[in-house]
Amino acid sequence: MPKTPDYFHGKTLVITGAANGIGRATALIFAREGANVVCADMDGDGARRIADTIVQQGQKSLAVTTDVTSRTQINDMIRQAIATFGRVHFLFNCAGAAIRRAKFLEIDDDLYRTTFAVNVDSVLYGMQAVLPHMLEHGGGVIVNVASMSHKRGGPGTSVHYAAAKGAVLTMTLGVAREFADRGVRCLSISPGPINTAFQAASATSPELLERFRQDVPMKRFGEPEEIGELVLFMCSDACPYMTADTVYVNGGGGWR
Questions:
Q1: Whole-number Å distance between alpha carbons of 122 and 75
Q2: Fewer CB in a 10 Å sphere around the end CB: N or C, the chain?
Q3: Residue 203 in this model has a pLDDT that exceeds 80
Q4: Domain limits of the chain?
Q5: More confident: 253 or 171
């Protein structure tokens, strides 16, 4: 939570992957605190549904259909956010996917390139789009979603995804240190398994899901809201000295 009451009131957050899961939960949490929320997702109908929910709750929101693998569409997303609300204070690069599970020798060019486009290119494009605006207006906060998998390497199921998330973590560190003296904080979150549609979308078997669960000392998956509340804290005035870090949220363990 912020130190200052109404800290988020009137400030603007842009979220990619806002239609579901962690992105959706974070959008609702920031709206609860009075922020304007730009909901970006390739699923335009899903983005509009969450934006409509926020507006019905009395806050301001904008839905933008966005393919995060397109630099042009990411640039347009930021332009629309600025045109609508005048300022972007926070960017949450939440969109990401493992695409599908695969053993290392089964990772083909299409899977490899698509995984990096969705998870790494999107973060690069988002940060390059918003940073000039943030620097012009005295700063801002960027939070990127990495993963516990970068510490484990994803053997047997997702080396491609773990490598992509390792790139996100490294890029976050570099951007944070490059702009730390210009008012920009840049952080990442490395979740363990979270109860979202991610596992189903990547065709995770019930057996593998149970193995993931048993690897967590708390014996449960995290909830999207538990990540969203952390994003709120990281963007707040409660931690102004915090940058270049990744925060692990994994119930005491995480993936093998």
A1: 11
A2: N
A3: no
A4: 12-249
A5: 171
What is the bridge-based pairing of β-strands 90-93 and 246-249?
unpaired
- The neighbour count for residue 79, using CB atoms within 10 Å, is 13
User: 115: Cβ–Cβ under 8 A, 6 or more apart, which residues?
Assistant: 97, 98, 99, 160, 161, 164
Which uninterrupted H or E stretch holds 164?
helix 159-179
Q: What distance in Å separates the CA atoms of residue 149 and residue 230, rounded to the nearest whole number?
A: 19
Q: Are 123 and 93 in contact (CB under 8 A)?
A: yes
CA nearest to 235, candidates 125, 96, 94, 132: 94
Which fold does the domain 12-249 belong to in CATH?
Rossmann fold (3.40.50)
In this structure, the strands spanning 12-16 and 36-41 are: parallel
Active site residues: 161
Is residue 154 classed exposed, middle or buried when 0-12, 13-18 and 19+ CB atoms within 10 A define those classes? buried
75-79 contacts at long range (C-beta below 8 A, 24 or more positions apart):
75/125, 75/129, 77/14, 77/16, 77/38, 77/40, 77/129, 78/14, 78/126, 78/129, 78/130, 78/133
Sequence-ordered list of residues with C-beta below 8 angstroms from that of 251, at least 6 positions apart, any chain: 192, 216, 217, 218, 219, 220, 221, 222
CA distance 182 to 35: 23
SS3 of residue 141 by DSSP: strand
**Cβ neighbours around 164 below 10 Å, total:** 29
